[in-house]
Structures are given as structure tokens and as C-alpha cells.
Write a structure and sequence with these properties.
With 451 residues, this protein is an alpha+beta fold. The chain has 17 helices and nine strands. The protein is 41% helix and 12% strand.
């Protein structure tokens, strides 16, 4: 074998691909064109947005960012589509389908603001409720801005391809390659590679064990009737997917202390908005490029006297003088229609005070709704399965065909109460209990989690 330095012996393969080492997926391989998108300020901005927002303040291992998550989702999307194309050549594969779905996966989180979901669900929803803004809308704005700024990135993508990528990000199905909409943002049954990556990645960095195996699910997937179906023996693995998601929300994402810090950062943003125009950024991609987790430092080290209230809140976070959890009530199903926001709110709670000096601003009511990804529905009811012996016929599975131990209920409501002033914990808890007595016939059924 001739091992000389003749460059003609080097395969072209090495000129077309680059690799990224990842702790979750190992060596991830991408074509060169992907790096044109990665190496833009739009995508690099994601390095400064924590994947789990304030969870990092409770779980110090949760230091990973949207940047590596998006790379992981792009890797899994590309891998899954390539596998389908190779194992099912009889399908009419979209010529640009692989490229479009990989790009959609890469760019699906471009619209996340500082501290990820906190920006969308706590700050913007409070400051700009009339806009009904979502991070998916933000991703579309940033993707279009990226393409307008770097026209050469279009390469062989035409206008229809760009629209297709945006639809894939939003999960808005079209007639073009319907099964590709099951990959990045699957609104059919909520099984997609976005979850595959963040469940594995979050568990790894949180130090939480998971038995869900996404690699098996990908291996035993098959396109039938224009949708991705799964081998029926993977049904319990799918339940494990949704149970893992629920567990992470229960134990980590919505940890009591994480939520308290969420409210503090939200309030810091609200106080700073008149000066920094944070909420205006959702309408201007150039301003949104400046929006990442470092905004706390911008506020903290600013000399602007108008930011004093915001700075004081951030100082409380630094000194661990946090808003305090007061009490909670896990709402039984028969009370969900009664304990609405109209009935359980800050104003109603303080109305039960007895000269305690409570103000409306002292109380925060958190209505925590946890589910398996499709509200009160069982998402597995929307999954189609196949049998290897009859590979082109799909069917549904009843829970009784999987296990008698799978959940009977798929959504829960937990009402949690916080206060900004730790000295007012006891009177607020007393008021909350008195309010609940109006709806609970047997007070003994109320279990005080703080005792």
C-alpha cells in the first residue's frame, strides 16, 4: 500500500463533512453547508441561553445551552431521515427533504429569549399579552432575518423550501412530504427528535437516570401511510418517553426554587423594560440578537438609576434571598372545574386576611399543569404501530395491551403559592387554607405539603 503524501489519494468524502464531538450522541457528522448556518451570530447567540433556564440555579450541572441542543436535534433529524431513505427506497422521497428537515431542526430554537421558556411564558405573556407571541414565531423571524442577511446561504434552497422549513419548525403540516412533520415538531402525537435530544441531554446534565431509549425508537420506526409508525413492541418504551418528560417537569423544570427564581427574573425584566425595551425586541430581529442570559449582567452592572428596582431583585438572587414557597394543593379531578383562576387568585387569597397587612403584590399564584404532552389525552392513543410480520399495516394499541400499570390519568393541576416577603409566609398560608375550605367538603383531605 502506497502511503505517500499525494493529496489525490484523499477521498472527497473528507472535504464534504465536518464532525462535532458531543457527550450525548458521540461524533456528530454534518455536511459543510450546515456550518454556514452554525457560524452566524443568530445561531451562536444560543451559546448564551441556558437550555433549562433557572434550573441551573438549583441543579449546578444543568449548564448546557440551546446551542448544543439544536446541534443534537439536527443530528438526530438527519440520521432518522437518512435511515428512512435507505431502508424504504420505495417511498417517493423529497429531493430536498433531508436538507430542509436538518435545517429546521438546527434553527427550531432560534426564537428563544433569555432563560428559554421563562422569557416567553412568564415575561412576554405578562408584558405583551395581546401579542400571543411564542418562541416558534421568534424562530421564524430570526430564520428569515438570517437568510436576508446572508443571501448566499440559500444555496439550492428555493422559496418553497424556505417556507417548508418554517412550516417544519412550527409543526404546521402541508401536503409536502407529510411524514417529515413527525420529526422536529410532531403535533400528531408529540413524539419527535426534539424530545429525544432534550430528554437524554437534560437527564445527563441534571444527573437524573432515565430508562427511555430513543435509539431503539428510531431504529424501529417506519413510514406507513405518510406518517412515522413504530414497532408495537416499542409501546412501553414510548410510555417511558412521556413518563420521563413528566418526571423532569415534576422534579426539575418546575422545582419550587426554580419557579421562585423564574418569578424574580420576570419581575427584574418587568422593572427594566421601560429602560431597556426588552419586550420590544420580539418585533425586531436586530434587537433580539442582543437578547440572551447575559442581560442580567447588563442590568446588574448598569449605572442607570432607572434600573435600581431591577438591580435590587437581581442582588436578592445573588444573595439567595429568594421569593419563598408558601403552600400547594394538588387538585382532585372533581375540583378542577371549580378551582379556576377566577376562584383562586391573589386577590381572593388576601381577602381572607385578618389585619395581616397583606398586599396584592405579596402573593403569587402558580397554576402548574403537568401532563404527558397532549393535555389530558393519552398521546399513545395517537400513535400508530406496525408488526414486522405485516410491515405495511398500521394499528393502534389499547393501554391494556401494553400494561395494566400505565397511567389512568394524563394531566394534573397543582396550585402553588409563593410570596415575595418571607415574613408573610404564615399569614398567606392561613388565608390560602381558608379559601380552600370554601371548596373542600372534608378539610381533612387537604394535605399541607409544608408540614
Amino acid at each position: 500500500m502506497n502511503l505517500n503524501n499525494d493529496s489525490t489519494n484523499i477521498p472527497n468524502f473528507y472535504e464534504k463533512f465536518k464532525r462535532i464531538q458531543d457527550p450525548i450522541h458521540g461524533l456528530m457528522e454534518f455536511e459543510d453547508w450546515i456550518f454556514k448556518f452554525i457560524d452566524t451570530e443568530h445561531f451562536q447567540r444560543l451559546r448564551n441561553i441556558k437550555q433549562l433556564g433557572t434550573t441551573y440555579y438549583v441543579y449546578p450541572g444543568a449548564s448546557h445551552n440551546r446551542f448544543e441542543h439544536c446541534l443534537g436535534v439536527a443530528h438526530l433529524s438527519r440520521s432518522l431521515v437518512k435511515r428512512i431513505q435507505e431502508t424504504q427506497p420505495e417511498l417517493e422521497h423529497d429531493e430536498n427533504g433531508l436538507k430542509c428537515v436538518t435545517l429546521a431542526a438546527l434553527c427550531h430554537d432560534l426564537g428563544h429569549g433569555p432563560f428559554s421558556h421563562l422569557f416567553e411564558s412568564e415575561f412576554i405573556s405578562r408584558k405583551r399579552p395581546e401579542v400571543n407571541w411564542t418562541h416558534e414565531k421568534g424562530s421564524k423571524m430570526m430564520f428569515e432575518h438570517l437568510l436576508n442577511k446572508y443571501v448566499d446561504l440559500f444555496d439550492d434552497l428555493d422559496t418553497d423550501d424556505v417556507k417548508f422549513v418554517e412550516n417544519l419548525i412550527a409543526g404546521d403540516r402541508t401536503h409536502r412530504s407529510p411524514y417529515l412533520f413527525d420529526i422536529v415538531a410532531n403535533k400528531r402525537n408529540s413524539i419527535d427528535v426534539d424530545k429525544f435530544d432534550y430528554l437524554a441531554r437534560d437527564c445527563y446534565y441534571l444527573g437524573i437516570k432515565s430508562v427511555f431509549d430513543f435509539s431503539r425508537l428510531m431504529k424501529f420506526s417506519r413510514v406507513i401511510d405518510d406518517q412515522i409508525t413504530y414497532y408495537f413492541k416499542e409501546s412501553y418504551n414510548i410510555y417511558e418517553l412521556f413518563h420521563t418528560r413528566y418526571s423532569l417537569h415534576k422534579k426539575a423544570y418546575n422545582h419550587r426554587v426554580c419557579k421562585a427564581i423564574d418569578y424574580m427574573i420576570r419581575d427584574a425584566f418587568l422593572e427594566a423594560d421601560s429602560i431597556l425595551k426588552i419586550s420590544d425586541s420580539i418585533f425586531d430581529a436586530n434587537e433580539f440578537l442582543k437578547m440572551d442570559d447575559t442581560i442580567l449582567n447588563r442590568i446588574e452592572f448598569s449605572d442607570d438609576p432607572g434600573l435600581k428596582k431591577s438591580k435590587d431583585i437581581i442582588k436578592r438572587i445573588r444573595n439567595r434571598d429568594l421569593y419563598k414557597f408558601v403552600d400547594e394543593f394538588l387538585v382532585p379531578n372533581d375540583l378542577k372545574d371549580k378551582l379556576t383562576e377566577k376562584e383562586i387568585n391573589e386577590e381572593k387569597i388576601i381577602s381572607y386576611q385578618n389585619n395581616d397587612g397583606l398586599k396584592l403584590d405579596d402573593v403569587i399564584v402558580n397554576r402548574l399543569v403537568l401532563n404527558y404532552g397532549m393535555k389530558s389525552e393519552n398521546p399513545v392513543d395517537h400513535v400508530k404501530f406496525y408488526d414486522k410480520n405485516i410491515p405495511n399495516k398500521v394499528f393502534k394499541l389499547e393501554k391494556s395491551q401494553v400494561s395494566y400499570l400505565v397511567p389512568e390519568q394524563f394531566e394534573e393541576l397543582n396550585i402553588r403559592i409563593y410570596t415575595k416577603d418571607r415574613k408573610k409566609i404564615d399569614p398567606i398560608r392561613k388565608c390560602f387554607k381558608e379559601l380552600l375550605k370554601e371548596y373542600i367538603s372534608n378539610p381533612k383531605t387537604y394535605y399541607n405539603m409544608t408540614n
